[in-house]
Amino acid sequence: MDLNGILRFELFSISDISVTVGNLILMIILLAGMAFLYRSLLGKWLPIYFRKEDVQDAEKQRTRRLVQLCFFLLGLILVMITTGLDYRLYPPAGQPIPAEVTTPSVNQTDNSTGLQEEDGGPEQIIERDARRRGIWISTILFTILLFSIARLLDWILLHILNRNFQKRREAIQRIAINFDQPRLVRPAKRIVQPVVYTLAILFMAYVFNLDSFLSESFQVGSGENSDTINIGVTKIISAILILLIARLFVLIFTEVFLFPYYQRKEINIGSQYAINQLFKYFLYVIAILYALGAIGIDLTILLGGAAALLVGIGLGLQQTFNDLISGIILLSERSVEVGDVLDVGGTVGTVRRIGVRTSLVETRDNMTIIVPNSKLIGDSVVNWSHDEDKARFRISVGVAYGSDTALVKKILLQVAQEHPKALKRPAPFVRFINFGDSSLDFELLFWSKEFIRIEDVKSDMRFETDRLFRENNITIPFPQRDVWMR
């Protein structure tokens, strides 16, 4: 007996299913590979992840149980696939198969017999189509496996997203002290599961052939450019699935891959936001185009029919489109970034978000101003923190004539050097700026990173200056005016 004959040797049979030596060998090889992967995952990869993420013991046990469940289900599925020991639940074995399940598709027919020769006879096509559309035990196990993997991935991704959330929050707090309330949106607890749920719904819609009684046809365009679009349940669900996959990919790519790169290269929070937003907009545009294609909409006909409408809307919404383009320019040019401190029309605030049309600026009073992006592009805007994380500030004071100017300078420098929010480098200095009408005018200049609460810093320095002046008998004079009477 040759090798081929040995592999085809039948060990046993159940009903009309035969298990051969080849099936058994393939099953053993696949299960051995799965066992090796299982040991590597539990013994090496998961402990590394637990140490890196500082996972608690209870969560470790939960993760291990999910991994064990996934591998158990995978093992059962491999046994069924390799041996063929599977059972069809719908349509039930031995019962007539519904016509909507077994109806051959258009590309399976020809003009003479209604069936292509390479597809075999009607019985083969019916059995193959039932296999493709039917619900089997392996189908149920595979669905449970997908949900278990989704739960596991959701749990792992949630830990990563929460860790990145805290790091990003700390980074914003370093550049914006007025960050008392949570401004970042916490990551969702379910990220992968919506994709799996939608995939399961799509599968059930396909199995029960819902398109046969839940579909609608629409006429798009007119004349030679007209086209008929047949929209069914599976097409709509497929479009939703594409958008959910795009959302999942954006989260994984920006948080799992890009964020560690940002940390290694010490890229500032504003640049991170700009890169993430541009990538998200680009991917969502592609996903929307694919979703429209999945529904069955011909984009060339759609764009051709909407051209005149877009021109009319563009004239009416000219300012809105200007803001949209300005938002893209801000994200790409990065003249204004998230975390920058701006002076917009005399109002000082921190940029919290740069949206597609507007940006959010939080003021010193903890109020949010919605600024159109076109104003940040076209108007004159003072950006205190664009190139540097520090700026120079000044405090003016006048002393009476006859005061010791050297002592005044010493006191002012002492005030700046002792305040914790004033930087030691660059060093503060004092200017004797003028002989005023009633006082000798001085100016204290110092550097600080406190853009938003700088007025509090100045107030503290003025209190301390007044105290030291009183201790050293230095007088701050009242304004004097000479009045001549005739």
TrEMBL record:
It is a multi-pass membrane protein. Residues 320-386 form the Mechanosensitive ion channel MscS domain. It holds the Pfam family MS_channel_1st. The keyword Transmembrane applies. GO terms for molecular function: mechanosensitive monoatomic ion channel activity. Residues 102-115 have a biased composition (Polar residues). Residues 278-318 form the Mechanosensitive ion channel transmembrane helices 2/3 domain. This is Mechanosensitive ion channel protein MscS. It comes from Flavilitoribacter nigricans (strain ATCC 23147 / DSM 23189 / NBRC 102662 / NCIMB 1420 / SS-2).
